[in-house]
Amino acid sequence: MLAFLARRVLAALPVLAMVAVFVFLMLRLTPADPAAIIAGDNANTQQVAEIRQKLGLDKPLLTQFAIWSGKLLQGDLGESFFFKKNVTELIVQRIEPTLALAVATMLLSVAIAVPLGVLAAWKHDTWIDRAVMALSVAGFSVPVFAIGYLLIYVFAIKLGVLPVQGYRSIYAGFWPFIERLILPAITLSVIYVALLARITRAAMLEVLGEDYIRTARAKGLTDRQVLVHHGLRAAAVPIVTVIGLGVALLIGGVVVTESVYGIPGVGRLVVDAVLARDFPTIQAVVLVFSVVYVLINLLVDVSYVFLDPRIRY
Asked: Which residues does 108 contact at the CB level (< 8 Å), separation at least 6?
C-alpha cells in the first residue's frame, strides 16, 4: 500500500512542474506587452522600458523563470496590475465564497446524483430509468448561465423567496450564509448531477450483473442490502473517479456562476482580471486552480486503497 501511495505522489510532482512552466510561459509568450499595459496608452518608450526593467522582463527567459520559481516557493504570486495588491492577498480574500460554493455544490450533487444513478440501475429499462437519463441529457444540454437566470427569475423575481446576489460569511449567521448559496449551488450542480448520475448508473449496471450479486439475492438479502452494501460498494471506484474529474466542471462553472450571482469569489476575480488584462492575477489563479485539481485527483487515487482491497496488495 505504501508503495502505491508513494508512486501516486511522485507521479503528481512532474505534473505540478509542467503546470508551473505552462503558467509562467502564458504571461511571457502573450502578444501583449505587460509593461505597456501597466504604463498606459500615453506612456512613451522610455517609461515602458523602465517598467520592463523593474519587472525583470528584460532578462533572459530562464533567468525570469528561476526568479519566478523562487518567489513562487515562498508563496509570492506577484503583484496585480489592476488591483495594485499582492495576488496572494487577493486570492486569500476571495477564497471563502468560492470554497463554500464548491463544497455546497459537491455535497448537493453527490446527495442527488448517486441515489438517482442507483435507482436508474435498479429499475433498468423502466420509465424511472428513462426519466433519470432524460434529466441527465437535459442537464448536459442547458448552459450554466441559462439555468442561473431561470432560477433567479422564478425564485427571486417571481416568488421572492431567495436573494438574487451577494454572499454572506458563515460568521454572519448560518441561515443568511445558506440562503445565498442555495441558488448558486443548484445552478452549478445541474451539470455535475447529470454526469455523476450517468456514471453511477453505468457502474451499478455492470456490478449488478455479477455472480456475487445473484448469490446475495439467493441468500435472501433485501434489495437495499444488495444495492448499498454489495452493489454500490463495489462500484465506488469509478464513481469516486468521476467525482474527482468533475472538479474541472466545478472550476469552469464557478467562473460563470459567481458572475451571474455577483459572488465576490475567485471566479469573479478571474473575470475582472481578464477584462482588465491583469496578467499576474490570471496567471496566479490558473496556477492555484491547476494545483487544486491535481491534488484532488491525487486524493482520489489515494482513496482507491481504501475502496478496493485488491489495490492494497
From this structure: 185, 186, 189
Please give the single-letter amino acid code of residue 110.
Answer: V
Residue 114: C-alpha distances to residues 21, 90, 144, 236, 309 (Å) = 38, 36, 21, 10, 22
pTM: 0.80
| pLDDT tier at 270, thresholds 50, 70, 90 | confident
In 3-state terms, what secondary structure has residue 41? coil
Cα–chain-centroid distance for residue 104? 12
Average pLDDT of 19-36? 72
In 3D space, the residue among 295, 313, 305, 276 whose CA is nearest the CA of residue 9 turns out to be 295
What cell was used for 155?
425564485
Question: 139 vs 174, 189, 191, 194, 225, CA distance in Å?
Answer: 29, 9, 5, 5, 30
Q: Give yes or no for a contact between 254 and 103, defined as CB atoms under 8 angstroms apart.
A: no
Amino acid at 57: L
Going from the C-alpha of 119 to that of each of 56, 180, 199, 252, the distances in angstroms are 59, 31, 13, 29
197, 189 contact by CB (below 8 A): no
Helix axes 279-307, 236-245, angle to 10 degrees: 170
The amino acid sitting at 167 is Y
pLDDT, tens only, 73-97: 777 777 777 777 788 888 888 888 8
Return the residue matching grid coordinates 520559481. 69
Residues shown for the chain: 313
Dist CA 113 CA 125 (whole Å):
18
Domain ranges of the chain: 2-73, 89-312
Q: What is the CATH number of domain 89-312?
A: 1.10.3720.10
Residue in the block written with cell 512613451: 44
